[in-house]
Design brief:
The protein has seven helices and nine strands, in the order ααββαββαβαβαβββα. The protein has 232 residues and is an alpha+beta fold. Strands 1, 2, 3, 4, 5, 6, 7, 8 and 9 form a nine-stranded antiparallel beta sheet that branches. The protein is globular, with a radius of gyration of 17 Å.
Amino acid sequence: MPASYARAFSSGEVREHAAIVARRGAQLAHAEICAGSAGPRVCVVAGDRPSLLALVTEAFLVHGLSVQSAQVYSRRRPDGQLEAVNFFELQAPSSLSEALGIDTGELSAFVQTLSELVAEDMLAASRPSAPPATGAPASRVYFELDALRRGEYVLLVEAPDSDGLLNAITSALLHQSVRILASEIRTEAGMARDRFDLADADAEPLCAIRLCDIQQAVLAALPKPAQRPAMR
């Protein structure tokens, strides 16, 4: 697991996560409830692929769930395969302030949907991107300068929170052929403030042109907020 994972969790949490990962077995996807500092979270384990985070958020949306916060990690297993270990705090799409629980039946249904989406993605050569939309004036998409100086690519996204926002961002990154190494997703007062640690899918350095293309693609993919009718 990346160093950021070790900094984020206690030894007891690491042991709990390791047991969840082990119970995945040969399944395409596996999920369990685990403890978190702010309450229970959903731990999702699956083979890592460029489209995985988009598929996870899509599966949550299918079941009427949205993401309040997320921590996303990628590790290399002893057999050499990449595996994603992701943690999600959920909320009802209609409320930004009320956390949402999930019972065993709902979790099983979510895993079934996610497994079907992963299987479909494995068979498909590509998936359609989210319809592009102009970002709201308050939206910002930019790379962290200090990280660039260290040779790292950290994309920061600030935008009004909305259903499907995370799916739109991850879909845009997928079609720019970049991998998400780690991510921090949070919402404050209706504003999403997300961080994505990125790498080129072919492990090549990202030049200035690529960085600009990625930034513009994500900005264009941000869902357009609903317009209020003019007052008369």
